[in-house]
Each structure stands twice: as structure tokens, then as C-alpha cells.
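Continuing the batch. This is chain 6 of the set; chains 1 through 5 are on the previous pages. Same settings as before, nothing changed between runs. Recording input and output for traceability.
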Amino acid sequence: MGCRSRRYPSDTTDAEWALLEPLLPRPACATELGGRPEKHHRRAVVDALRYVTDNGIKWRALPADFPPWQTVHGFFTRWSKAGVFDKIRDQLREKIRSRAGRNPAPSAAVIDSQSVKAAETVGRPSRGYDGGKKIDGRKRHIATDTQGLLLVVLITAASVQDRAAARDLLSALHTAYRGITWVWADGGYTSKALVDWAQDTLHLTFDIVKKIVGQTTFIILPRRWVVERTFSWITQARRNARDYERLPDHSAAFVNNAMITMMTRRLTRPTKRARTT
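Output for chain 6:
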């Protein structure tokens, strides 16, 4: 069961694979229940998932030097359902925070949403029309730490208002990260009822960062720019430039995969040597 040669920009480097391999679930054949040995190397499967995420191709268009697309899609489906991508994302984020001298567990977060057009493969039950952005599709609601590293992602129809989705997003955030006590959001989340609910139910301080009075041009506002940069990172992966997934959970998985690739590259990036005179 050899591994293919590295040939695409999206492929893992040796350093990235050394970082990712221990975070993947154990193969069935290595568990007490047992099972058949996997036919294809895990690294080839991960590289194929990264290729689909980065290039936005159809599953059936996966290049022939990868494992069969059915095999790769099978891993993607199983790992998505088991929360594997969420776990890898969280462990990589903790490593980045620790390297920066921060507590691995965040105490504050920033939330926002992004509406994206949906392909014809997205069914009516999970799509809608965002009248403000004039977009027919889905909406990504995310929470990040103060460095812009992803904490939670929630996928809804684009017609769902930010304030309506905020309760589910904040509840998921509170469940996963009990140490978070402060959350920033933009003016789209302005609601006294929401602020009071967050304080009374989740014991979170929900802070609205409003635009400057009289602002007519783009101005970087405190905290809000962090999550906007995260959306930029996510949509650099072409699979996330539009929503093609039948299941909202698969949309979230591709968002996580884009963030995982960004974090593995950051963690394995060679450090610059100081110049000598």
C-alpha cells in the first residue's frame, strides 16, 4: 500500500503529514473490532480531499493518480459524520494558540455570517434568498477566536436572519467552549432580547461593534475585521466559493477542510532565520 508522489500544490508536505497522521481516526483493522486493511494510503485520501477542496472540482473529476472518487467520497462522508474534521481543526488551533503564547482554550470569540450562491444540487429545504445580499443559496454562520481561527460553523438557508441563527450558533459555541465569556458581533445582530438571552442563559457578554456614526467608506473596525479575514481564508478554496453540497453538514466539512489546510501550512512554515552581519 504505497503512497503516490506529491505533485499538486494542494498535496500535503512531509511535515504536514507528520502533523495530520496522528490526528486521524485509527483504521478499523487496528481496532479491537477488526476489519480489512485499507487498500489506499491515508495520505493519498487526505491529498484527494484537499485537492477537491482547493480546486472545487466534481467528485467524478478526481485525477486518476488519486484513489477512486467513490473511496475518497466514502472517507469524506464517514469522517464528516463522525466529527473528525472538527476534532482535527480544534487540535491544530490549540497548537497555533500555544505557539503564539496564548491559552489553548479561547476566552473570547467573534461571530459573523456569509451568504453564498448555491448550485442546483442544493435542495429547497436548505436554501433560501438573502434579500439584503441578493443571493439565492446558503449562509455560513461562524465563530472564530480573536486570531480568526475557526471555532464553530453553522450552515443555514440564506434567508435565515443573523439574529435568528445566533442562538443556535452561540449555544453550540457555549457547549464546545465553556471558557468563552465574551462575544463580539456586528450591527446585524443588534437585539436587546438576544443580548439579554446570551447573558442570562449562556452567561456570555454579547458585544455589538457598530459602525462609526457618519461612516461612508470602508473603515477597519475593532474585532470585526478578524472574522472577515477568516471568510477570505475560507473562500480561497474554490469549493467554498459556492455551495455545491446536498447536505449542510458536508458544506461545513469543506469549510473546516479549508481551515485545516491553512493551519497545517502555518504550523509547518519554515521560520525565517535572522540575518547575520
